[in-house]
Amino acid sequence: MSYRTKSLSGITKNSMMELSRVKCCLFLLALITFTFSVSAGIPEKPVPPRLVNDFAGLLSAEEAARLERKLVEYNDSTSTQITVVTLNSLDGYDIDDLAQRIGQAWGAGQKSFDNGVVILIKPKVGNERGQAAIATGYGMEEIIPDAIARRIVDNEMIPCFRENDYFGGINAATDIITDLASGRFKAEDYESKDGALAAIIPIVIIILVIILMGRNSGNKRRNIGSSNLPFWILLSMLNNSGRSSGGSWGGFGGGGGGGFGGGGGGGFGGFGGGGFGGGGASGSW
Asked: Domain TPM: where (predicted)?
């Protein structure tokens, strides 16, 4: 082999080695960039650990303390961990995805039960819509199905959030979640609440029409008894409806009320390593 051939061979080997180094550096850079982009936007796990993390400043100090005490007491008595997170920005994430990522990164719930729940809220900022999400750990997906999570967001949280009552919405949602998780009532019972109301509305309308027709009839003295009869029927129906719903819904607010008492136990001891797999729902206003 000539000297020139040896030189060319050496140059080729050196070039290939340099190219390999460049490829390796580019791969490492891409990996670091990807890792950073995935972790960006996910808030750090709070130290010391807390269940109420109001990064957006939506709650007063007293409101945050009341919610924290309530959720810590529930965690201490059941091991189910419900954490509340508020953020002014989602950093480009879908709110459902970010709620799941927070739950997984923080390990909300116990590792052996995956019984964690994340309530994530982004308030209205400028022209951006407000958003709220409930993410459920693996072990909570049957207890709080996606449809029920959506109903809690739509019925308990967003109406309060529209009035800037963030404490009221969070408190109502956590009451329902704790009652469901404790078995005070089932998801079907909560779902049937709106169904019962929807069934009553047409009956109320019909009775009101009958009342108006009775009032417009000819002889007032003759029809006074009959015209008032539909009113008493309506009152009786509403009273019976209230009694029946009261039996099914007696547990509502029970879990939350206890949390507002005195000191209870110590502070929150930390997240238990629970896992999340996509359960939950969200809404906006």
From this structure: 52-178
